[in-house]
Queue: 2 jobs
Job 1
Amino acid sequence: MSYKEKIAARAAREVQPGQVINLGIGIPTMIPDYLPNAGEVFIQSENGILGVGHRCGRGTEDRNLIDAGGSYVTLQPGASFFDSAVSFAIIRGGRVDITFLGTLEVSAEGDLANWIVPGKMAPGIGGGMELAQKARQVIVTTTHTTRDGRPKILERCTLPLTAKGCVKTIITELAVIDVTPQGLRLRELARETNLSEVQAKTTAPLLVTDGAIPRF
Amino acid sequence: MSYKEKIAARAAREVQPGQVINLGIGIPTMIPDYLPNAGEVFIQSENGILGVGHRCGRGTEDRNLIDAGGSYVTLQPGASFFDSAVSFAIIRGGRVDITFLGTLEVSAEGDLANWIVPGKMAPGIGGGMELAQKARQVIVTTTHTTRDGRPKILERCTLPLTAKGCVKTIITELAVIDVTPQGLRLRELARETNLSEVQAKTTAPLLVTDGAIPRF
Amino acid sequence: MDKTMAIEQALTAVQDGHTVMVGGFGVPGTPFTLIDRLLAQGTRNLTLVKNEANEAGMGVSKLLEAGRVHTLITSHLGLNPTAIAMMNRSEITVELYPQGILAEKIRAGGAGLLGIVTDIGIDTILRENRQLVRVAGQEAILEPALRADIALIHAATADRAGNLQFAQSARNFSPLMAMAADRVIVETEAIVPVGALDPDAVHLPGAFVDHIVVLDELTAEYGVLARHVL
Amino acid sequence: MDKTMAIEQALTAVQDGHTVMVGGFGVPGTPFTLIDRLLAQGTRNLTLVKNEANEAGMGVSKLLEAGRVHTLITSHLGLNPTAIAMMNRSEITVELYPQGILAEKIRAGGAGLLGIVTDIGIDTILRENRQLVRVAGQEAILEPALRADIALIHAATADRAGNLQFAQSARNFSPLMAMAADRVIVETEAIVPVGALDPDAVHLPGAFVDHIVVLDELTAEYGVLARHVL
């Protein structure tokens, strides 16, 4: 299992039957492979689908059926189509239970920064800002550090924010971390790591509950 | 032909093939009986119908198919249903070519007052204000005077306005009058009347073009 | 996934003091069965949002007549002299909006917006006591979005995941209100399995629906109203 | 009633300097044939409104690459490095909005509203240069409505009165843009007689449609995009 698969598999366990979820690009698109009751979860896509199924096998693509990331997808039973205004009404109206998003930075207070790097022109906002600000739960799925090893989980974001105080949980290849009013609380540790490694790679302090930290 | 039928019949002649029209309560509901090419005109109803047909014969009513006035109606070919937000998008978005409305008062500048009499609580606004303000043409179909003989066409409205400067044409049992930047212009006279009677029953001055006034 | 539920259980969600949106424009779309059961369970002190107040003795008018409603947010009461009389005697507070503006306020609530900006009524007494703003050099009214605790909705067909279809002129305010309430209770004439509806023909996606009550029968109130027949 | 028209004739409505909304989200819903013909007729100095800029060499990107567009109002350019490069070289002005806010601005234009009020982005750099208002005690952004001279729309099926159906994820921005333009030009894969569509299954009522162009063939661009296949 690659580190990305590990993150996706752990993230899938946050989903409850009956929930409506939205998947950002990258790691989140791998989550459906690990949903235990995929038929009981409705995947929403910004381009106007509720009930996205698995990705298409080669040769079965439908030219009119893609998700917001541009991948050819299938439908699950009970799916529906709607226009972009209704699609974002589902998002901003509070009917998305969980959005899984990647990030550039996330802060101890749950601030999310994942859309623009000053100096480089941003390719756009897409639906991420609305998902981050309005989904009932925002779960960040990300590598724990940048490609060159710098922490992504910071006291404060340095990049322009996508949304303030929106993140509830951060899932990386090393840890599951909840954003709480007291600060970041370490909920689980990956089997391959230990607390001191994770804290070393996390700029913000991690709160730890007494007793053994569950592993994943 | 009753005076109401006369007004409706004359009003129907203002409609061009291909137009979308909306009919207020009262006299306007009689207009479809006089449309020469009914199949080429689309009647919009605020409750979410484009393509209302004739009223139902007794025994053919459908419990789910009424117009905004509560009458059981039929559909014409090419009809469609939509929600109330889309229905008023058609109205406010400028896709209703003509709305025919009754009135309490109408002014020389095209102000319309047809929804509230101070001192009496108004039963509500309904869709009339949006139709008056946003339809491409507002045609008032009304008796020339009130039941007790007072003029309805005034220099200035005395009642609270429905919309300002919205009326393009006034059709009564006595006359067809256009609202122009110069004032009210008499376009046609009913066969049963004459200019002096109409002017006497109209508080605002009527402009008359040289030559014989067409009759209807 | 199965959102169907007994009517009594579904309606326990409606509590004293709640704001309740009720679909329907005249008879079509009015959820008479849910309203009757709400009346029976005695919930009071309600703020009601409905296009109109039905007619005397029918639908939401029963809730008004039983004194369960302190405020009615609506577009007109034209067909209900009982409701007009109650308003004139100040037994209920009535907030009137242009019909399409009421629809947009509800839709804005459903779309997670805070309000809309409109010029409807800007030259009339409707501008009084309104928040005025300037946009594109023009004076306009800022109308706050409207949300509710509960929406009561009538559907022609539902699947068990809550995807809905409405029949003809029964659609009206129903999808908008279903978007705008924290808890959405639907009564349906027909229930079908998940997967039975054409995804392109769903009028309201199931994400907006919480509970589905399957109607055993359609009472006389749902039928053709004799006094409106030619 | 028959709104069908030859493509050349329909597109004479599009003039230099116009604001043009173009439906589609990726390939589904993009009116490739109308775009190609617009390119061929040489119209320039356009303001384009589209969810994204398609991909390099396809759809609206051809108009950008040919220098016909001075301003692009969009949600993201993520799949089009050519458009990003043009933006970075200031060869086009790009106005970026959150995707659902772009949808609502267009919808508000279509609904004859002057704007919407939203808290999306209120804690971000998006608040800069925006009209801020207070509503319900909360700071919010007033976003003006967006309208266009022209909308170019792709439908799966149209009747001759302009009632439209879209296929699956090809619906996206199309009905909103068709509401928001003074002149709406539709290309359709299938044309049916007036009366052939179920009135409950119409996605966009014909009142919003001015001209219908019937497609003789679907070019390769409409097909499955090989580079997006697994």
Job 2
Amino acid sequence: MKERKKFLDINPKIWGPIFSLVVIIVIMGIIDPGFIQIEFKDGRLYGSLIDILVRATPTAIIALGMAVVIGTKGIDLSVGSVVAICGAVAAVLIVETQLPFFMVVIVSVLVGGGIGFLNGIMVSFIGIQPIIATLILMVSGRGIAQLVTGGRAVSFDSTAMDIIGSGALLAIPVRLWIMTALVLCTVLLLRKTALGLFLESVGANAKASRLLGIEARMLKVIAYIFSGMCAAVAGMILIADVSTAEINRLGLWLELDAILAVVLAGASLNGGRIYLGLTIIGALIIQTLTTIIFSSGVPVEYNLIVKACIILAVLLIQSETTKNYVSQLRTKSLENRHAE
Amino acid sequence: MGVLEPVVDVQPLLEIKNISKGFAGVQALNKVSFSIAPGEIHALLGENGAGKSTFIKVLTGVYTRDSGKILFDGQDFHATSSGHAQTQGVSTVYQEVNLIPTMTVTENLTLLQQPKRFGLISPKRAKQRALEMLERVGLNIDPSKQLDSYSIAVQQLVAIARAIGTKAKLLILDEPTASLDAKEVLRLFELMRQLKSQGISIIFVTHFLDQVYEITDRITVLRNGSFIGTYATKKLPQAELIHAMVGKSLDELTSGSNRETSDSADDVLRIQNFGKQRFLKPVDLSIAKGEIVGLAGMLGSGRSELCEIIFGAQAVDQGSMEIAQNAVHIKSPKQAIDHGLGYCPEDRKIDGIIAELSVRENMILALQAKRGWLKPIPMTEQKAMVESMIERLSIKTPNLNKPIGELSGGNQQKVILARWLLTQPTLLLLDEPTRGIDIGAHHDIIAIMKELCEQGMSLLVASSELEELVIFAHRVVVMKDRKKVMELTGSDISQKSIVNAIAQ
Amino acid sequence: MLNERTLPLISAIIVLLLLYGFGSIAYQGFFGLRLAGYLLTDNAFIIVTAVGMAFVILSGGIDLSVGSMIAFVCALMALLVVKFQIHPVVAIAISVCVGTLFGTVMGLVIAIFKIQPFIVTLAGMFLFRGLGYVINTQQVKIDHPFMSSLSEFGIIIGQGELNFVAIIMILFLALGVIISRYTRFGHNVYAIGGDAQSAALIGVNVPWTTVKVYALSGFYSSVAGVLFAVATGSAYPEIGIAVELDAIAAVVLGGTLLTGGVGYVFGAFIGGMTFGVIQQLINFDGTLNAASTRIVIGALLLLFILLQKIILVWAKKFSAKGSD
Amino acid sequence: AELTIGFAQTGSESGWRTAFTNATKAEAEARGYNFKFSDGQGKQENQIKAIRSFIAQGVDGIVLAPLVTTGWDKVLKEAQRAKIPVVLVDRGLDSDPSLYVTSVGSDFTQEGAMIAAWLAVETEGTCDIVELQGAVGADAAIKRQTGFANVIENFSGMKIIASQTGSWSATGGKEVMESFLKSIGGENICAVWAHNDNMAIGAAQAIKEAGLKPSEDILIGSVDAIAEIFKTMADGETNVTLELSPYQGAAAFDALEAHLAGKDVPKRITVPGGLFYPETAAEEWAKRK
Ligand SMILES: Nc1ncnc2c1ncn2[C@@H]1O[C@H](COP(=O)(O)OP(=O)(O)OP(=O)(O)O)[C@@H](O)[C@H]1O
Ligand SMILES: Nc1ncnc2c1ncn2[C@@H]1O[C@H](COP(=O)(O)OP(=O)(O)OP(=O)(O)O)[C@@H](O)[C@H]1O
Ligand SMILES: [Mg+2]
Ligand SMILES: [Mg+2]
């Protein structure tokens, strides 16, 4: 009895996003059974669902950082530009220097963290509103990326990058491993220490948190650093994908997808709660939509309309009002049954 | 219950019939029925979490009721929102100050009823109107300043001024006196009587029984969401009232017991010439180990400010501070906590609770912050601590994971107290710690405070309740105009002496 | 006037003047009625959008759909005027109505389903852009004598010109200021932005006010769309990309808090002009390449904000001294 | 005296655009102009602002690379009133030719047509093509699409079996190509027509990962001739690219100078572009990288 209760204690919110994702995939599976087939070919899994997972990784990783920032009542618009900068840095390092690969990774993640640090300082020490502070780097960041590469795309040959881009380990694409590892580390870091709690408390009420002895400002900075680092990792994966860092387009509009993923996970932009696992589900929902649109043959003009409509549908299904309405209907029908 | 409800021969203004309202895990109201006569002041009493505020919100349409019927003026009454209730003649001051902190006092007072000229709002007339409204509650402040530049007590008075200003047949006041001091309370009562004479009915929620006896005609008691009874105030002795509310008898609060000043010489805190420009004039104060120092004063006298600068929530610009005989410079609350201080702020909605987080999280946060993020308190330990606190302070919550924002006001206050008790500070600063707390718990909390200081903790308590200060303080510091004006010790402490000091 | 509430706006104005003064000293042709006229015209549609956005932000929300709305309205105008041969006046009326309607629908979704405005308007942003594509993916010239006469209309003042677009902008700015300060709706917007829960308890009809706010934003952004169509006499699907960010930035630069409830609609004008002046400073300099253009815009924004903060801190200190 | 020339560029959306900007700047420097550059960041309104700032500064001439073909009448009239000649580069305008001196540049429709013609020759007029479009609504995308379609209309065996936007980017191209390979099947695709090189590079990757050989199993043609495409081509992964000349600046300046000197200038000056094949790719890559 007690165990059962514990199980039900899980925040009921988590079923919304999972339910939405499953429904979308099931509908697609009915329309086109090929969509849900997974084959084993050349030592790796192959199929639309795997594609979705693989394609979703960059967004999911960025969304992970975004979830933490949004949890502190912030927002990070600069991630798209950070992706470009870190991609550019990594590509240039690979092409122009003899640095070992792990150093390249470290340097670009540090660069990402450094940009996050600047965002964090602007937000929490100078007190600029997050959307504007990160807008500054969103605008100038792409310029910095252009400076790094001299304004052109940089292509490279690197086995390590190829492995990240398209390699597989135990039949599962390497980037899925990277994402899983990142998610696990983040979950451990946030939930097995008090960091997650502190971040959420800062997001929910920064003033009260400060009076509790929580270093609210420092925590915000940490959140932005983390977001920057996540964007850097996503940047590496994105350039590995095509062995080119095309800074003009790299990571463009990714911030919107990441924010969307966080919100689909049920988080409020007013801060206070961080849902890591669900954020990944949110990213998967978005990617599923994109993949469906691409493989369905809808004329390009309709891409956005389809996307908007499905997102709206998912949001409406998940909304409190709908849930209340449904539960009202249910109690009514129960009452009717009792009356009979 | 012994005392029967007197027969009301006039048609009641408001008739409540079998109102029920449940939240996930709590039945907040269970078939509540009573009625209110025209021109009556009706007390609605009960322990923290009894369902008073919920009742008020159901009545005014903020919550939808699960079942039941309400008749207002003989008509079926079904408010869909607070605004709707207002247009029907029910004006309400809810428990937490519910005004717009970012708007000016004038804008707050005239919202939705701004005087217009040529179809547009006339700021000049609005200000005039606001001044008139403030005048009625005896508040002399600049209405063109932002509301949140005033203390919570002033805000409370503004809220009352607003509610009175609308033309209503029924006025509902949910704990309006919680943060007011004696003078303001008198002023408010005068107003209530005036309204009553105009035939306006008032529902009045409070935890101060003296006030109940002073002003109300009848009393309705709720307990655990259930209706216990409606009584004529005059015919209900206090002991019976307490029994009705708590369900058991309670000893009288022991009075005047703390006179044996702790003679321990080691001061846990000593401040000298401690102050901040425009904020607080320099103060000298020392607090000994195991001592309770009370802070008395009028609205805006600087009590809260003193607590804030000691705790490092505000930077000081002059003076020195010693903690346990060591000179310290505290620049942030974190440092204060590291030095063994704790601070329970006055405005719980803004500075205290973290509404989205659960009761458990809210309670352990201060302790966790003290330990640092790397040493998380194991869940079992957390639960044990929180459960024991819930028990000790009799906090009413269905479970530990309920968001604190959904608790009743008094219970939120208890959680915040518990938060600081868990950190076991050497000096705890309490700003209006018993605000909105029911008599049973009040009793418990005073007992706990005494127990704590016997164990060696020191307390600095700012309170508008002189009665309570007199009961527990070893020493009372009287503040006026952001300045310390007097210090009373031992047998000098009495309500009268404090009032005199303030009046000087 | 100089109190805590007006300070951010005033410091924004001061910094704008500083920037303008700098440009006037550093570059020939910067100071003068000609560029002043150009600044008003060129930034008109951003400012009009930002005025609508200011209401949304003051109410504690956000509207990401404005850029797409502009594109959609232009496409609709082109469709009506060029394809259906409807007179531009009627076309303008229809387009503004449709835009307002779309805004209303977003407001309804936000108010009824209690979904966060960021996401609803993001969906709106996708949807309107998509609708724009569906109406027409080509570049269309909106050729009509009436449209040209509108765009040619102007009051010549010295070397400069106050043209139709700028005049409309000023009118709608004034309208916005009046609505926000002198109507109940305006005060209700501030109230729900300051504390929606309390506002509801005071009796403000929060859902209805929310709907009206998004309707108003839809209205203003469709007016901006019309202004764009008039100013260029053309429509193409990529109009107004990222305008939502510019508009938000303009509002915030004008001293409005994104958390809602604090700020002035007039700030939208100051913010919009600030953007315009920053861009013209870069244009007049004329030596920056693409990469440095972006970096300098970012740096100037940061500088602007920092100056504003410094003025704020300084003013607070000053007033502290003064009143003691 | 030294000429002051303003250049209103569209933005820096691609490597080609950057090359174009750099080439124009270098040319202006070589001629000793006082050169005012403005980057429009992909927005027409910014370009209009730039032109107006040039007018306010009283430059001697304006070079405009219009982002779109409509919507310039008013500002061009203002320039005319201020007696400042305007030369267009990169693409023409849909407005009164008297508003500008001349239009130097390439023709997007022509570009689409050239790739289509190449493909028709290569496949003898039978080919199932998938198209990777540029950003939805972009002028270049629409015109390249039209030019390509106009040509293959003439071949009953050629048709576009799928068309989707890759948003001008390699990642986008790869993702779209992947989903085409899944939904259509690699064996049913004869060629990829990509509106720019980046998307072609991405598509080649996707084809490789699906276990097919790009440029043999599936032909790939694209436009832009950015440096990177030559590397890919040299590796045998794409078949053709079309160069748009980024060296239009010189022609534009010549026209301006001629106009200022009172000479007649033809209304349209075309700069040559050309197709590049794998044979010369390695050489070009060495030259351009
Ligand atoms: N929004 C809500 N969601 C869930 N539970 C609620 C909500 N509001 C109140 N409750 C619960 O209903 C019960 C009654 O609360 P209510 O606020 O009416 O008490 P009260 O009598 O006003 O107490 P107090 O004297 O402390 O103000 C409490 O147990 C509280 O936790
Ligand atoms: N009656 C008043 N007239 C004008 N301003 C007031 C008045 N009361 C309070 N204020 C303002 O409220 C602010 C906060 O006061 P503060 O909270 O320090 O008072 P306090 O001594 O703690 O008393 P209380 O807690 O009872 O309000 C002060 O800065 C003061 O400007
Ligand atoms: Mg209550
Ligand atoms: Mg106080």
